[in-house]
Design a protein that fits this description.
- This is Rhamnulokinase family protein.
- Keywords: ATP-binding, Disulfide bond, Kinase, Nucleotide-binding, Rhamnose metabolism, Transferase.
- It is a single chain.
- The chain has 2 domains: 2-228, 2-Layer Sandwich (Nucleotidyltransferase, domain 5), CATH 3.30.420.40; 240-415, Nucleotidyltransferase, domain 5 (2-Layer Sandwich), CATH 3.30.420.
- The protein has helices at residues 48-62, 113-120, 129-136, 140-144, 151-160, 167-171, 185-191, 230-236, 266-270, 293-302, 306-314, 336-346, 355-381, 398-408, 419-431, 439-449, and strands at 2-8, 12-21, 24-34, 38-40, 43-45, 67-72, 77-80, 147-150, 165-166, 201-202, 207-210, 222-224, 244-249, 253-259, 274-277, 283-289, 387-391, 412-414, 453-455.
- It is of the alpha+beta class.
- The protein is 35% helix and 20% strand.
- Bound molecules: adenosine-5'-diphosphate and 6-deoxy-beta-L-fructofuranose.
- Residues 9-10, 73-75, 93, 229-231, 251-252, 254, 288 line the site of 6-deoxy-beta-L-fructofuranose (LRH).
Length: 459
């Protein structure tokens, strides 16, 4: 059977079509389109209609398929009015409207930072939906809103006319009770929104409606709910077995382990670990590391392509300067080289003086941040890790993979690059009865069919 995955990342959107039959999964990319934010009147927005057009064109290019599933980056949303019409362009999670909002809760008498963490299991990051809603309080748009749809649910609604709230992505709002079974009344009250703003929760694998005639060539195709948070799909698409850690390595690097239940200790809160919901009730216990965003933003300033930077960085001196790749100072767009230079200077380290030196500094810093995250996850969750899987676009970065193996002192298995789309496809394949339904069997299928590259740690 033919299955299409729509995978919208912060840097690009893609439509991937797979053929799945017993024991075989082959796929090809039929469309890729840029995801470029637009600043309007001082606010950074997603160009959601351009993305929707990319999805429609991609589905037309895909030809007839038996099912479509949609995933995207987390936390962001569109508000709909009483007629189901979008109220304004969704705001980008890197917009400054949330600056300082989450910090307000560190000293709040009723909602201390830890009580928010304990209730939701979600690390207090400035861009969480809950803090975006606090920042939007009192706006005419929020007052007029009758429903809130997370980005993949919005795309799915536009395609089918059916509204729902997919649970893995809903967990990133910070509004679900830890464990992800229901909305948290306390967190809804903190956000100042009623539960009725959210269409019914739905789980990966359930039907999401049928594409309407207005969608053109794809009309009549069933849409299946997948793990609509891209990281949830990517972790479902990690070809791991036994004691593994993962790095979902794209614009962000999401670094952690999969657990059966959340960890909400004070130590875990202080270490900035989140408990997002994955497929089949799993918990993604991870830390957000700024990821290849650091390099993408530098490249945007320099106007330089990736390949020569990576080639140069491979022979540049190692560990000359390192920055904290989890520091929120790097979250917003804008002159990244200057911010990295400032961080090196204030840490008393040599300031990288060329793009190649800065690239090396970024990659060394990412590898060290990965090691810290994996060590902390092991300690805080009480688990062992024997191998690190790197998936996503960054799995193609040979230098980063080798530096990660070296820093962690563990073997790294790199690939698949399109783990997000593959996780998306596997959940649909399971709903169609095409694969063994067990998550570990689905991962075994990826191990058997996808090319993985092994990096052994060097002394
Ligand atoms: P997202 O899903 O967030 O849009 P991706 O998973 O597509 O991100 O990863 C994008 C990143 O992958 C880029 O920032 C880039 O650093 C890295 N990348 C893409 N292609 C290559 C390549 N050929 N070699 C090394 N790295 C690559
Ligand atoms: C990666 C991602 C990540 C979130 C961030 C907002 O694309 O979904 O898991 O923390 O975007």
């Amino acid at each position: 059977m033919r299955i299409a995955a729509v995978d919208l990342g912060a840097s690009s959107g893609r439509v991937i079509v797979a053929d799945v039959s017993s024991g075989v999964i082959t796929f090809s990319e039929v469309a890729r389109f840029p995801n470029e934010p637009v600043r309007v009147g001082g606010t950074l927005h997603w160009d959601v209609l351009a993305l929707y057009r990319g999805v429609l064109d991609g589905l037309a290019a895909a030809g007839p398929v038996d099912s479509v599933g949609i995933d995207s980056w987390a936390v962001d949303y569109g508000l709909l009015d009483a007629d189901g019409v979008l109220l304004g362009n969704p705001v980008h999670y890197r917009d400054s409207r949330t600056d300082g909002v989450s910090d307000r809760f560190s000293g709040h008498s009723v909602f201390s930072g830890y009580s928010v963490y304990e209730a939701s299991g979600i690390a207090l990051q400035p861009f969480n939906t809950i803090f975006q809603l606090v920042a939007a309080a009192g706006s005419a748009q929020l007052a007029a809103a009758r429903s809130l749809l997370l980005i993949p649910d919005l795309i799915s609604y536009w395609l089918t006319g059916v509204a729902g709230t997919e649970v893995t992505n809903a967990s990133t709002t910070g509004l679900l009770a830890a464990g992800g079974k229901s909305w948290s009344p306390q967190m809804l009250s903190l956000a100042g929104v009623p539960e009725s703003l959210f269409p019914p929760l739905r789980a990966p694998g359930s039907p999401a409606g049928v594409i309407a005639p207005a969608a053109g060539a794809a009309a009549g195709t069933p849409v299946t709910v997948v793990a609509s948070h891209d990281t949830a799909s990517a972790v479902a698409g990690v070809p791991g077995a036994g004691n593994f850690a993962y790095i979902s390595c794209g614009t962000w690097s999401l670094v952690g382990v999969e657990l059966p239940a959340p960890v909400v200790s004070v130590e875990s809160y202080e270490a900035g670990f989140t408990n997002e919901i994955g497929v089949d009730g799993t918990v993604r216990y991870l830390r957000n590391v700024m990821g290849l965003w650091l390099l993408q933003e530098c490249q945007r300033s320099w106007g330089l392509p990736l390949e020569p930077l990576l080639a140069g960085a491979a022979s540049a001196p190692a560990g000359r300067s390192v920055i904290d790749a989890t520091d929120p100072v790097f979250l917003a767009p804008g002159d990244m080289p200057a911010r990295i230079e400032a961080a090196c200077r204030s840490a008393g380290q040599p300031v990288p003086s060329t793009p190649v030196e800065m690239t090396r500094c970024i990659l060394d810093s990412l590898a060290l941040a990965y090691r810290r995250a994996i060590d902390d996850a092991r300690r805080l969750a009480g688990v062992s890790v024997d191998v690190v899987h790197i998936v996503g676009g960054g799995a193609q970065n040979e230098l980063l993979c080798q530096l990660t193996a070296d820093a962690c002192g563990l073997p790294v298995l790199a690939g698949p690059v399109e783990a997000g789309a593959l996780g998306n496809i596997l959940i649909q394949a399971r709903a169609l009865g095409l694969v063994d339904p067990d998550l570990s069997s689905m991962r075994a299928l990826l191990r058997e069919t996808q090319r993985l590259v092994l990096y052994e740690p060097r002394a």
